[in-house]
Design goal:
- The protein has about 290 residues and is of the alpha+beta class.
- It has six helices and 14 strands.
- It is elongated, with a radius of gyration of 48 Å.
């Protein structure tokens, strides 16, 4: 054991012991240069050399584009730059498509109004501007104008004035069974229709909706307002009784009150005023409901 420690100590001292390294002339064998070195010095010099090479390579790689010359190598900065450029190109394409759609819709609106559409022209600045030059009409445009302005299936006048399609699309319920005594007439100040019904007749909701008003006034008795889908509001006036409260949901045909207001010349007949408002404007209820 002691011999082992002694051998290790000798090896350690030998690692740091200096040796003489000299250079001699091959002709006369005279020493021309010498130095003293040790294995520990050689090892330290080698480690220092490796560290110096590592620092030089790291600096060269960090501050020069040498890595871009290597095939298959791409830095994260290059990837981010390419992604940004690609996203900018996509946004530009989306902007062009949106501007084209807006111009297309604008031209369709002009054609439906009987006006001449405009041409969209791009400049070198990649901006979309409106050119006021006339567009030469073609066969498809002439056919579309004839269908929109004539009496065909796509006529604007027919789509505005036709009542049967509106009735079929909405199919609202009749609020009460009776006879219409006064019809809708904005010039006369009648915003709805008057229906003569039997005494104490049940009044039903024209469609599914929410009750927004239910109150009594000396002039009109009970009045009920129901908000329906599509921004449509139904109003029921001259009721003797209200069976609903504000905020209550009602179904189509559900009873919401009873009729009132006897007519002087109609015996025991009762009268109901029924109104429909679409987007805040009064509309003719007979355009939405088939009264029998």
């Amino acid at each position: 054991m002691r011999n082992s420690f002694r051998w290790i100590a000798d090896r350690w001292r030998s690692f740091f012991r200096k040796r003489r390294l000299s250079m001699r002339n091959a002709t006369d064998n005279q020493e021309e240069w010498h130095t003293h070195i040790s294995p520990a010095g050689i090892f330290a010099a080698f480690v220092a050399f490796v560290l110096l090479i590592f620092v030089l390579v790291l600096t060269f790689v960090a501050y020069s584009p040498v890595l871009e010359l290597l095939p298959g190598y791409r830095s994260e900065a290059d990837k981010s730059r390419e992604n940004i450029i690609r996203n900018i190109m996509r946004l530009d394409s989306m902007e062009r498509m949106m501007n084209d759609m807006l111009t297309y819709n604008h031209n369709i609106a002009l054609i439906m109004e009987g006006k001449t559409p405009v041409v969209a022209s791009r400049t070198q600045s990649d901006s979309l501007r409106i050119d006021k030059r006339l567009v030469a009409p073609n066969a498809e445009d002439s056919v579309l104008r004839a269908q929109m302005e004539g009496d065909g299936a796509y006529s604007l006048e027919r789509s505005v004035n036709a009542r049967p399609p509106m009735r079929e699309a909405i199919e609202m319920a009749t609020p009460v069974e009776g006879i219409i005594t006064e019809r809708f007439d904005l010039k006369q100040g009648r915003f709805g229709i008057s229906i003569a019904a039997a005494p104490e007749a049940q009044v039903a909701s024209a469609d599914e909706g929410t009750v927004v008003l239910s109150l009594w006034t000396p002039e009109t008795g009970y009045i009920i307002e129901v908000q329906h889908a599509g921004n449509l509001l139904s109003v029921y006036r001259n009721l003797s009784q209200s069976l609903v409260t504000p905020g209550q949901r009602v179904r189509r045909g559900e009873v919401i009150g009873t009729n009132t207001e006897a007519l002087a010349d109609a015996g025991d007949a009762k009268i109901l005023t029924f109104e429909l408002w679409n987007n805040g404007k009064p509309v003719d209820p007979e355009g939405y409901i088939v009264f029998r």
